[in-house]
Amino acid sequence: MDAIIDEWQRDTDLVSPEIYREYLRDGDTRSLVSLEKLESGFERVIREIAETDIVDAPAVWSVYNMGYVVKTRESLFSIDLVHRRAVELADKLDFALITHNHGDHCSSELYSALNKAGKTVISNFLDNYGATGKGAKNPVGGGFVVGEKIFKIKDVEISTSLVDHNKYLLDFTTAFEIRVGNWKLYHSGDCGIADKLKTRWGRPDVWTFFPGCGINVADAVKKINPRKLVFGHMWELNHLSGRLNARLIKSAIEKAKSVNANVHLAFWGDRVDV
User: Fold this and answer.
1) What is the pTM (predicted TM-score) of this model?
2) For the chain, what are the domain ranges?
3) In the CATH scheme, what is the homologous superfamily, with its name and number, of domain 2-272?
4) Nearest to 81 by CA among 64, 58, 102
């Protein structure tokens, strides 16, 4: 695993935030490995979504940063989906979840497309009137929520709660606990303080986790005790000094393993083995 982490570090070191933002504008990978992985990873997700039939537990794909797409027997939805081509999934998604109001977690283009199509977008900062009016696709309606609430969309139950991004942005992030039958996924966005982390439905099968923003990894993981811990937010390219880099990732892995966590890394385009 160390060799893979080091390889990704070398490749992403070549992509400055300026180059990444230029790529977002023109789609040119400039033959940089990391940007080519972003493109090929998205193609893989699109292909596998179409090819995958769900008969038991949902399928989860890592797209980029803390962005995931989840397919169940009855639905397809995203969490914090951000990618240059994210809007290509708008027609396929039944709804979307967004943890907080930062550009590396929210695609304004995707949100606008979903809202216009009358699909629910659950967040703590966006109006979602498109999901309540004529042509609305989901009976749950608009998804604006601040605090604790339970939503039910098709075969998916969603429980929301607020967590702290850091010691300045208190209650800034919505953590999503997702239940499909007996299977549970927890996504806590950029939570940097473990105090408010909690689950309504017990031990999650998968926790998509950011071991950054100063969070005490061992304490957080011991508190939630997931069956599988999946690190995200690795090498977010619009950051530079704030990137979760190789040194920090390796340190977080050791801290998580110190409390017997089953740790996995979600690279762009990977299907998370649930």
Assistant:
1) 0.96
2) 2-272
3) Ribonuclease Z/Hydroxyacylglutathione hydrolase-like (3.60.15.10)
4) 64
